[in-house]
Structures are given as C-alpha cells and as structure tokens.
Amino acid sequence: MVKKSKKSKSKRVSLRKKYKVIRKVKEHHKKKAKEAKKLGFDKKPKVEKDPGIPNDWPFKEQELKALEVRRQRALQEIEDKKAARKERAQKRKLGILEDDEVQEDASVGEETGVTKKWDNSEKSFYKELVKVIEAADVIIEVLDARDPLGTRCADMENMVRSSGPDKHLVLLLNKIDLVPRESAEKWLKYLREELPTVAFKCSTQEQRSNLGWKSAPKSGRTNHLLQTSDCLGAETLIKLLKNYSRSHEIKKSITVGIIGLPNVGKSSIINSLKRSHVVNVGATPGLTRSMQEVHLDKNVKLLDCPGVVMLRSAADDASIALRNCKRIEKLDDPIAPVKEILKLCPDRVLVTLYKVPSFDSVDDFLQKVATVRGKLKKGGVLDIGATARIVLHDWNEGKIPYYTMPPTRNAEEPSEAKVVTELGKEFNVDEVYGAESSFIGSLKSVNDFNPVEVPSSCPLNFDMTILEGPIEGMNDQPMESGEEKAIVKEKSAKSKQNEKLYAEEGMLNSKLKKTEKKRRKKESKSSAMEHDGNEDYDFKVDYVKDSAMEIGDEDIADESSKNRFALPEGVEPDNE
Fold it and tell me: b/e string for 214-249 if b means 16 or more Cβ within 10 A?
C-alpha cells in the first residue's frame, strides 16, 4: 500500500478552473448590480434646486435686498464671534475673564430687561461668620506670620467677646516658615500678652491622605525641621484643645471655629489637623463659600469659615491686595499695589529677583519686567497690567520675602495680664509653650535669607454700613422660580429675533395679528364677567357689542345684530 505524503498539498489549480472562478464572481457582481439598479439603491438623491424668486412677483427687488442684508448680517455675526473667541482666549491667559463675563451678563440683562439676582458675597460671608461664632466653644483666629497685625480683625474679636463669657479666643500664627526666627519670637511674645497664641506651619503635601506631621524632637537636632513639607504645630494645637476640654470636664465633643481674613490658611489648617484633604484649599481668596463641619475625632469638631473683608471704599484696594484678601484678577488698578511694593522693598531686591537693570519709576520697572518675561499685546505693545499682576502674585506667594516687627506697647494701654492668666490656666499654656519652643528655634535667622522688613499694617475693621444697605442686584420684586426665569429669557431671545426679522420692509408679522385678536378676546371675556352681576343688562345692545368685540370687525358686528331668519328683500311673509 502506498503511503500518503505528510507534506501539505499544493494550492495550485489549473488555469481552466481559475478563469472559471473569475467568471462566476464577475457574473455574481453583475447580478447584484442589476438588482440594486432595479430597486433604486444606487441612485443619488437629487438636490432640489432653489427655484428662486419669480420675475412676475412685484416685491422681487425688495426681497433680494432683504436677503442680501440678512446674508451680510450673518457673515458679520460669524466674524464678530471669531474676534470675541480670540479676545476671550487672550484674556483667559491673563486671568481677567471673570469680570468681563459679569459685565457682559449685566449688559445682556439690561438689553433684555431680565435682571439677575445675586446675593452679595460679603453679606453672606458675614452671616456664615456669625453662625460659626455662635456654634463654636473655642474660636481660633488665624493670622499671617508675615504681618500678624495687618491680618488681625478687631471687629471679629469683639464679636467673639460679646457673644458670651463661655466663648474663648485663641490666636494662631500661621506660615511661620516664611519669617525669620527673630520676628516669630517677638510676635509670639507680643500676642501672648493679650491672648493664648500658637505657632503653626501647614502641610504643603499634595497627596489626598496621610499628610505628614513633624513633632518637636527631644534631641537638639532641629536644623532641617522646616525644610520639609510636613505640618508643624499640629500636636501643640490639639494638646491645647484637649487641655481646655479636660479643664472644663466636657464629656461631649468640643466645637472649634476657625476664623480669619481670606487666604490666611484656615482650610489648610483643617486639612493638616485631619491629615487628609477634606476641604478645598487654594491660593485664591474666597474659595470657601460657606461653613463646613469636619470631625477631627470623637471629642473635637472643627468649623471652617469663609474669610470676611467688609470694606466699601476703593482707596483700600492697594492695602487689601497686599494682604491677599482680594482676587488679583478683580482689581481695577493692579499698578497701585505695585507702587506700594516699590515703596516697601529696596531696589536691589527687585533687581536681583526679576533680573532687570536699575529703574526710575513704577512704569519703568513694569516695562522692563514685561520685556524680560515676554508679556506683549497685539502689535508688540507691552502688557503692563498683566506684568503688575505677576509682581503682585509673587508678593502674595512669598517669592518676595518680607516680614514685620511688632510695635512697642505704650505704658498707658490697659493691661490684660489677668485675662491671659485665667485663660492660661484653662488651656494649660505653660506645657504647650514649652513643647513649641523647640521648633521655633529651627527657623532661619535674618542673615540666612535676607528678607525685607516692612512696617506693620493696621488691623482691619468692618464697614457695618454694608449690612444696612440693600443687597446689590436685589430688587423689591418677588423672587421668580427657575421655570419662570427660563420662560422670560426664552421669550426675550425670540422677541429680539422677531424684531430683527419683521423690521425689514415688506415682511408681514402674523404673530402681531394673532396677539391683537387674543387681546380683544380677553377684553370681551372680562366685559362679559362684569355684565354677569349687572341687572340692567340689555340683551339687544350688549350682546351685539360683545359679539362685535370677539370678531374684531365692525361690519361683521352689524351683520351679526340682524336676525338670521330674516327673509330676503322683496319677499313678503305668507299670512296663512
């Protein structure tokens, strides 16, 4: 028996078979094409041509002119949208889009007659502050270590004192890593003469959880303590709060409110104590909009509060901007704060930091910085406003290092030693201050990083007249629901479009005729309602009037007053 080969068979075929397969495939495709042609699948849809305007139509020239006007208007709108997009993109780079958007919304509201109702943020923030003070047992006022007196608010402290004797105020000196050791020690000594004060440094780590803490080492090695991104002073602050709860034998949880001016680090302190990102933080003032509760543990509950700055006068814009209490993008004149910076800082510091030659004035300095940074407008014009915002941003972020020293106390000032002693016993501050002094000594001295010493600012006070006046953007009209607002907005947009459409010559407004008919109908119904209670109603007269108003035509009204069964003229009735 012949053995079969294990090798694979050849795929070669004869030419007769090959051409037979090709012929069959061609016949199959031809058949399919014939069927598709019969069913009309391969036919392309005919594009209906615009027949145009008939030559015999009497208004042809007017209609052509109107079409050309509409076409030009549509092209112009497209060009305007392109230009607006480019301008918006340019402004977004500079961070000044918010104000323009608000102005555009206001202008749109004026045009359409729909006014938006906004709640004044300063008033709403003040209400949240009152809530926090009422709900808290201990209130922590957060101060910026670079300018503690400038970020202190006397009215907030007075609100806490006037709320009752069971409310206790504690000062917290945040951002101590940005100031030299000499300034931090003197400020702590100055503030502890009035109230219990704790030094603090927030965590700058970016992970969502497991934020690091640094406790004071028992050994004397504290050189590299502040070079990390971990939190400092958290254990000290928690110990202070625990001492208070133990001294009062509070079995329930203690509520701690954290207040202060915008951007002093209130939310960052809560995240550092909780060791996770539980509240939003950012370098933008006004990020926290309402009171937030965070449970630190079963005994301590923290309340986050939005920063409050209630000042009406525009003259304080420069000082408020230097304290980072207002958004840089919302400043009307960013050059004024830069003038104050040039007065406070020596020229050599700014020349070294921005790598520019010596300058004579503020404009000269901003022009040179804009040239170095490449801040140019269209046509190669220097963008002074954007450059001023960059310098102000560097000041607020600490790239221009500065610090203040506490003022000397007058002997005539009333002594608060008795109050501080009583509070010290409740919080057991001696134990807390002893543990804190170890990492205060690890701060850099003035000679290590050469910061700029500036004079201390004055504490801020609230302008209470803001609370007395009406809320901006609020009218005495009743609030509309969301559906009503949407209907009004839609109607205004449609009416605007219709006005443009029917403004052209020769265009018939059918909607206007319908609305007039509806109005007449409504008037007729109201008049009928009035006649219902009237005893002197004359059917022959009043019915004719009502029917005439419904139809809206005097001739039709006269015909309706006649008898429908009247005989034609010339025909006499049959008496039989």
Answer: bbbeeeeebeebbeeebbbbbbbbbbbbbbbbeeee
Q: How far apart are CA 388 and CA 336, in angstroms?
A: 9
Give the pLDDT mean for 558-575: 49
For residue 127, CA distances in Å to 124, 159, 165, 306 come to 5, 12, 21, 10
User: Which pair of tokens denotes residue 459?
Assistant: 């504490």
The pLDDT score that the predictor gives to residue 466 is 65
**Positive or negative CA dihedral for 360, 364, 369, 371?**
negative
Beta-bridged to residue 170, according to DSSP, are 140
User: How many CA atoms lie within 13 Å of 44's alpha carbon, on the beta-carbon side?
Assistant: 3
User: Which tens digits make up the pLDDT trace of 266-318?
Assistant: 888 888 888 888 888 877 777 777 888 888 888 888 998 888 876 654 445 67
Helix (H) or strand (E) holding 418: helix 417-427
pTM of the model: 0.59
Query: Per-residue pLDDT tens for 508-559?
Result: 677 777 888 888 888 887 766 655 555 455 555 555 555 545 444 444 445 4
Which residue is listed with tokens 């090709």? 22
Under a CB-based contact definition with an 8 Å cutoff, are residues 265 and 174 in contact? yes
Instruction: Decide: residue 411, CB within 10 A, 0-12 exposed, 13-18 middle, 19+ buried.
Output: exposed
Residue 424 to residue 422: CA distance in whole angstroms: 5
Q: Where are the beta strands (DSSP E) in 475-564?
A: none
Cα–Cα distance for residue pair 375/234, rounded to 1 Å: 42
Q: Which of 133, 165, 116, 164 is nearest to 308 (CA)?
A: 133
Q: How far is Cα 137 from Cα 245, in angstroms, rounded to an integer?
A: 10
The C-alpha atoms of residue 72 and residue 67 are separated, in whole angstroms, by 9
**Average pLDDT taken over every residue of the chain:** 75
Sorted by sequence, the CB contacts under 8 Å of residue 375 that are 6+ apart come out as 369, 382, 383, 386, 387, 390
